[in-house]
Amino acid sequence: MVGMTGGPAPYVYVCTRMRMRKSKLIQRDEYLRMLNMSLPEITRVIEETMYKQEIDELGTSFKGIDLIEVALSWNLAKEYQKILEITPGTLKQFTSSYLRRWDIQNVLNILRGKTEGIKVGKIKEILIPAGSLDRFILDRLLAEDSMDRIVEALRGYRMYPVLAENIGEAKETGSFSRMENELYKQFYADLLAQAESGIKGGQLFLSFIQLDINISNIKTLFRLRADKIEGDPHEMYIAGGVLTVDDFVRLNTIQDQVEFIDNLKMKVRQKTLLAFLDELKGENKMHDIEVRLTSVQLDQMERMSKRHPFSIHPILVYLEKKKYEVFNLRAIARGKESMLSADRIMKYLVI
Known about the structure:
This protein is mostly helical. The chain has a domain at about 90-200: V-type ATP synthase subunit C fold, CATH 1.20.1690.10. The chain contains 20 helices and no strands. It has helices at about 10-25, 30-35, 40-45, 50-60, 65-85, 90-100, 100-115, 120-125, 135-145, 145-150, 160-175, 175-195, 200-225, 235, 245-255, 255-265, 270-280, 285-305, 310-335, 340-345. Helix 3 (about 40-45) packs parallel to helix 5 and helix 18 (about 285-305) packs antiparallel against helix 19.
């Protein structure tokens, strides 16, 4: 048995814990039952799961949809922090780096919320302090009265140079798209550099990140086809996956859906993704494509974790599946609040 800083015993322990946690996640049948419930009934069901502590703690301050929103955010952040606490050695380094994507999401939500004049309390409800920016730092950002001051408050953090370079354009145009693209490109470049640095387990981390990049680029190509996002395709491309920037730009110029998918299939390798792409030749609904691509990605991640049961894979799979549990519960609650039909809400769920 090797010491508790990164040998086989702690790897086995933490990966076993991840599988146990994953087995307790809400299953498809439970989601289907929730679709036929009222919002108070859904709140009670959520309270009976792993969200009880948060529902109880927040029940005196929030009601209805607000209670569900905040309880889900708190639970997800606390769960991620617990996982970091029990994760040893290099696995902790990889996990911590991967969770920094939440810093990007939180800062963008604060900047967009402030620009749109949304109340601080409402912005706070959707923040998930699961990265390097904890709840106290996010509260300080929320208290700032201008975008420039928010950016300056992040001086010294990895994302600061990108924020500082792009905040002028964001203020001028009212769009954070370019800033978001640049932040995620930096995020993935940092992950790739870490995975390729020779650190133990880096190759397995690399395979996971490359899958993430591949799916992100494919989603972006489909969004561009549906004219759902603005900007230069070169700026939206993320390096490090199977597509080169030339591939990405060329694929974006192909008008015919069948031809586009046939060309895309020549570049991807995963069998599940190849089969899925064939199904899309007559599909044009962007939202359905995105949800199904996410399901394909989760399925591929699950396969990777089974091939490497004592590695970074089971940890990252659980992080993703837990994230989508929260995503699904939030979608059901918001759908019920908006009086959407069960069939309509079902299309938003990743199950």
